[in-house]
């Protein structure tokens, strides 16, 4: 079957990237988004749905929408499934489902309205997973209303000014290795390292803002000590006891300063890549008894949504191809090798539990395979 292209002229890579970024913005703004592919579709993220645009949906009823949810969320709503929690499933909507409160209750396990059941299963619309990827990259819950439509109707809606994107452009953008652009660099004297410098990078695919804190002279060392640290506002800034992020960050600065040089990469990947709003949702679920991974899955996310290729891209831009990695996470080691960074050795970075985060640390060890040991070095080749 031929693709039903929404545009018929060739476009540059920059134009394709811009269309994906605009599509993500439309998702966040609660706008219906046209996705062109083998069969065009209209997608609307439930999280950003408003009462006003819910009333405007009559315009799109060339077919009735289906609800697309992750298996992890569907399982909590009583649907028996053996699929991994991030697998997308589709369900027929019932008339009583088409209210703002009901739809939000279906999408969000922390919403005020409690929903206990789903409609009949349906086929996930062709290229529906592309729309879901856009929602997740926009850090919205992976729960969407999707309509399959016709090329003629899609053309009419584009001419009416509705946002659109090609499925192939989204797939290509999200499947390629992350790329970054250096934005600016300045000195940043901090208590533990008065001569530190900081460099800002922007992710080209998603506009994320990432930092490299450069301590001492890392280029004077054969394999400088590097910490890959995902942003954690609650832990790093507020001192939350739920995690070990704050102590890990501050201890990493001290250790690299003691060594005389190294880098801390501070990545815009809060909550294992799901964003701070979704992370706070997981805290609600954890207070109800779930562990950190179960809570992610209940929202429809995979165990870990981060892409450490972003860290590799920054290290390459800094001219650092061989490092010693300050981490207890084996995925970070594997990711550096995958994206062309040689990890000469792993340096243990274990923070003891504080009485509040004991279960969190146990989950990281037992379910994520994190090392738990005292400071030291493990060779990785």
Automatic annotation (TrEMBL):
Q: Where in this chain does the record put each GTP cyclohydrolase II domain?
A: 182-347
Cofactor comment in the record? Binds 1 zinc ion per subunit.
Q: Which GO terms describe its cellular component?
A: cytosol
Q: SUPFAM superfamilies in the record, alphabetically? A: RibA-like
> Hey, which pathway is this one from?
Cofactor biosynthesis; riboflavin biosynthesis; 5-amino-6-(D-ribitylamino)uracil from GTP: step 1/4
Q: What Pfam family does this protein match (any one)?
A: GTP_cyclohydro2
Q: Does the keyword Metal-binding apply?
A: yes
**Active site (catalytic residues):** 304, 306
Query: Which reaction is this enzyme known to catalyze?
Result: GTP + 4 H2O = 2,5-diamino-6-hydroxy-4-(5-phosphoribosylamino)-pyrimidine + formate + 2 phosphate + 3 H(+)
Which example biological process does GO assign this protein?
A: riboflavin biosynthetic process
Q: Which residues bind GTP?
A: 227-231, 248, 270-272, 292, 327, 332
Q: What class of enzyme is it?
A: hydrolase
- Chain positions recorded as Zn(2+) binding sites: 232, 243, 245
Co-factor requirement? Zn(2+)
EC number of the protein: 3.5.4.25
One molecular function GO term is:
3,4-dihydroxy-2-butanone-4-phosphate synthase activity
List the keywords (alphabetical): GTP-binding, Hydrolase, Metal-binding, Nucleotide-binding, Riboflavin biosynthesis, Zinc
Q: Member of which family?
A: In the N-terminal section; belongs to the DHBP synthase family. Belongs to the GTP cyclohydrolase II family.
**What function does this protein fulfil?**
Catalyzes the conversion of GTP to 2,5-diamino-6-ribosylamino-4(3H)-pyrimidinone 5'-phosphate (DARP), formate and pyrophosphate.
> What's the protein here called?
GTP cyclohydrolase-2
As recorded in Swiss-Prot or TrEMBL, the protein's gene is named ribA
């Amino acid at each position: 079957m031929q693709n039903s292209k929404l545009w018929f002229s060739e476009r540059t890579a920059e134009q394709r990237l811009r269309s994906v970024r605009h599509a993500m913005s439309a998702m966040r703004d609660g706008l219906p988004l046209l996705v062109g592919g083998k069969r065009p579709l209209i997608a609307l993220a439930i999280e950003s749905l408003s009462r006003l645009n819910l009333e405007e949906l009559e315009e799109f009823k060339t077919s009735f929408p289906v609800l697309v949810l992750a298996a992890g969320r569907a399982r909590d709503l009583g649907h028996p499934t053996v699929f991994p929690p991030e697998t997308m499933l589709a369900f027929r909507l019932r008339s009583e489902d088409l209210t703002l409160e009901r739809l939000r209750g279906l999408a969000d396990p922390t919403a005020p309205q409690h929903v206990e059941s789903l409609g009949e299963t349906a086929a996930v619309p062709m290229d529906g997973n592309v729309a879901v990827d856009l929602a997740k990259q926009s850090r919205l819950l992976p729960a969407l209303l999707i309509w399959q439509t016709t090329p003629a109707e899609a053309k009419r809606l584009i001419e009416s000014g509705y946002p659109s994107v090609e499925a192939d452009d989204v797939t290509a953008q999200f499947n390629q290795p992350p790329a970054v652009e250096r934005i600016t660099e300045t000195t940043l004297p901090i208590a533990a390292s008065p001569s530190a410098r900081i460099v800002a990078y922007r992710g080209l695919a998603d506009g994320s803002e990432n930092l490299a804190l450069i301590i001492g002279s890392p280029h004077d060392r054969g394999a400088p000590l590097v910490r890959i640290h995902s942003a954690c506002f609650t832990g790093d800034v507020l001192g939350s006891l739920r995690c070990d992020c704050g102590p890990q960050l501050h201890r990493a600065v001290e250790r690299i300063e003691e060594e005389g040089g190294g880098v801390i990469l501070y990545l815009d990947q809060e909550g294992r890549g799901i964003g701070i709003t979704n992370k706070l949702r997981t805290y609600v679920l954890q207070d109800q008894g779930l562990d950190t991974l179960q809570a992610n899955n209940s929202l429809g996310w995979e165990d870990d949504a981060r892409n450490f290729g972003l860290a590799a891209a920054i290290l390459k831009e800094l001219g650092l191809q061989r490092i010693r990695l300050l981490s207890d996470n084996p995925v970070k080691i594997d990711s550096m090798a995958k994206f062309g960074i040689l990890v000469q050795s792993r340096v243990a970075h274990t923070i003891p539990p504080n009485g509040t985060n004991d279960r969190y640390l146990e989950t990281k060890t037992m379910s994520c395979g994190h090392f738990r040991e005292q400071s030291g070095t493990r060779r990785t080749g």
